[in-house]
Structures are given as structure tokens and as C-alpha cells.
Amino acid sequence: MYICLCNGITESEVREAGRSGLVTPCQLKAKFGLKKKGCCGRCAKNVQEFVAIAQKGCSIASPSG
Fold this sequence. Notes:
about 60 residues, single chain, two-stranded antiparallel sheet, mainly alpha
């Protein structure tokens, strides 16, 4: 599912970023170019949604055990 239509960012792309270790708001903003020209900025305001999805991706990649 798309979570940013302006930049065409999907949940799976954010989960993949989480698996790569990108889980902070600043890392995700830089990775996906949030709030850059042509973007409405809504995703940057709701970056915690990106963080939650990335953290889920990160936890899937390294299960505790």
C-alpha cells in the first residue's frame, strides 16, 4: 500500500529501509526525500507512521530468540 502518493513510497519500501537499519525520523526523511519540492509534506508531518513501519521491518529481519 502507498503511504506517500507524492513520492510513490510504499509500506514495503519502508519495511526494507528498516531491515537496512534506517529507523529514525531523520534517516527516513533523508532516504525518501520527504518534504522536498513537489511533496505536499503530509508524510513528513506523520513520519512516526514511517518509523513504526520501519521498526516492524527491522524486527522481522532479526527475530529474537
